[in-house]
Amino acid sequence: QAVPAGSHVRLNLQTGDREAKLPDSKTGKSDTREERRRKRLGKMDVDSSSFTSQELKKALAKMKESEKAERKFPLSAFKAHEEEVKKKFRPIEQLKEEFEKLNVKMETDYEIMVKLISKFNSSVSTLDEKVAALYDLEYYVHQV
């Protein structure tokens, strides 16, 4: 049977019954997704399939207010933060050049995956090499 959103549902292992309990809103312990939605939207009728024009205007005004609050952060602060990040980190091209000077080749995950696939498809590779290539490929694919 369908239960209201935010209800606490459990399976009683002793009796085998499924039990549902409405959240206790007086204690404030149940902050379900539906409750958070109601708080965010205010006292609008969020359960109706259509909204009145007044409700839509209020919601739009709230959205505009929150957007204005986010915009209060000046653009110069963003640029200063960007400059700070550029000081801490170097571009990948610069890192590649420095590694080449040290005779160290830096490979991207894509390049490694291409090598592993070609090793797996190679007729010269032994069964152990193919299995190892599959394990390594699984690791890189999992990251993607």
UniProtKB/TrEMBL annotation:
GO CC terms of this entry: endoplasmic reticulum
Q: Where is the composition biased (Basic and acidic residues)?
A: 16-35
What's the name of the protein?
Nucleotide exchange factor SIL1
* InterPro entries on file: Hsp70_NEF-Inhibitors (IPR050693)
GO-annotated molecular function:
adenyl-nucleotide exchange factor activity
* Species name: Podiceps cristatus (Great crested grebe)
Region described as Disordered? 1-50
UniProt keywords (A-Z) are: Endoplasmic reticulum, Protein transport, Transport
Per the record, the GO terms for biological process are:
protein transport
Taxonomically, the superkingdom here is Eukaryota
